[in-house]
Design brief:
By secondary structure, the protein is α+β, with helices and mostly antiparallel strands. It is built from 9 helices and 13 strands. It has 2 domains: 1-153, no CATH class; 161-241 and 275-326, no CATH class. Helix 4 (98-127) packs across helix 5.
Length: 326
């Protein structure tokens, strides 16, 4: 039996009058920061700007979502658990409950998109033009929002999942490197000696595809350029998925649990063909800090430059041996 969860896309509730997660309208609505205070303080983000999807810049503390007191309490508890693990480092992060970590990532990604939608709505009101979200974005953002409602009511994710990779990264403890790609719901974060890469709406297809590589990486502390390459591999393979999984939500027989399911993919190969030329362009975008261009990434034999994988010796490249241009 299907279940009716709160759906903000019916009335396009992005004006700040109702709780972003429960839909509750109350005089006690409070706007909280998507990036919690502990992150803002730890990484001195109060005066730093975040580039939104609409290419307008908003200060990190000003990316807000409206919450009812009940939802704020749930989020505060979530943040405390994540903060303890993130402050401890890699060993604690890998032990975090996968659903809890998903909830934290989904809260950030959905919260950012909430602000993007609210901004777009305001722009269209000024121009007196109708505002519409694409059917694709609405479908997958709705599913992400439903999954995030697991903060409020118990959900069984046994039959549905997402891709998640947690690796060591040799980055500075003062670096907060957050990225997302909202068309295909990709999440990346590197800080305090670890990195997280997630594909939030793929039912684990990308993790399964890259699992042999992840097993080879193991607990090797990756150089930052290697982490960016791993991020690009997930980003590009997620783009290549032919049909994105569709999540459905059902009430369990007991009525106290929501079951999340995904329609199985009938295709034995869920990916379109890998194009090294296109992948090189993706790499070039994220290797800009090291001054690498597509021309330098493309090799004479048609393959692409890699700082992560040594094809000749069939092994991960030793981060200590990496020599960057310049």
């Amino acid at each position: 039996m299907s279940i009716q969860l709160y759906d903000p896309f019916i009335k396009m509730d992005f004006g700040g009058q109702v709780c972003f997660l429960s839909g509750r309208e109350t005089k006690d609505i409070k706007k909280i920061a998507v990036f919690d205070k502990w992150l803002l303080d730890r990484y001195k983000l109060h005066d730093k700007a975040f580039m939104m999807l609409s290419e307008n810049k908003i200060l990190y503390p000003d990316i807000l979502i409206p919450c009812s007191p009940e939802v704020e309490e749930k989020i505060n508890l979530l943040e405390k658990q994540v903060q303890i693990a993130f402050d401890t480092g890699f060993e604690a992060v890998v032990k975090l409950d996968a659903v809890l970590l998903f909830q934290w990532m989904a809260k950030i990604m959905y919260g950012i998109l909430y602000n993007d939608i609210a901004y777009a709505q305001a722009q269209h009101r000024q121009k007196d033009t109708p505002f519409r979200l694409s059917a694709y974005l609405t479908k997958h953002l709705r599913a992400l929002h439903c999954m995030l409602q697991s903060l409020l009511l118990p959900m069984d994710f046994t039959k549905a999942k997402w891709s998640l990779a947690i690796v060591r990264v040799s980055n500075s403890k003062d670096i907060f490197n957050y990225k997302d790609e909202t068309k295909n719901f990709n999440f990346s974060l590197a800080m305090n000696g670890f990195g997280i890469i997630a594909c939030m709406q793929d039912n684990g297809i990308n993790q399964e595809y890259h699992q042999p590589l992840l097993e080879k990486i193991g607990i090797t502390p990756l150089h930052p350029i290697q982490f960016e390459e791993l991020w690009c591999k997930f980003l590009y393979s997620n783009y290549l998925i032919k049909d994105k999984p569709e999540y459905t939500f059902y009430a369990a027989k007991s009525g106290s649990l929501v079951e999340v399911e995904v329609k199985p993919n009938a295709d034995n190969n869920p990916f379109n063909s890998w194009d090294d030329a296109m992948y090189a362009r993706v790499l070039a975008e994220y290797w800009k800090p090291w001054g690498l261009t597509v021309k330098e990434i493309k090799q004479i034999d048609g393959s692409n430059l890699s700082y992560l994988w040594d094809d000749y010796h069939n092994k991960i490249i030793d981060p200590a041996q990496i020599k960057l241009p310049g």
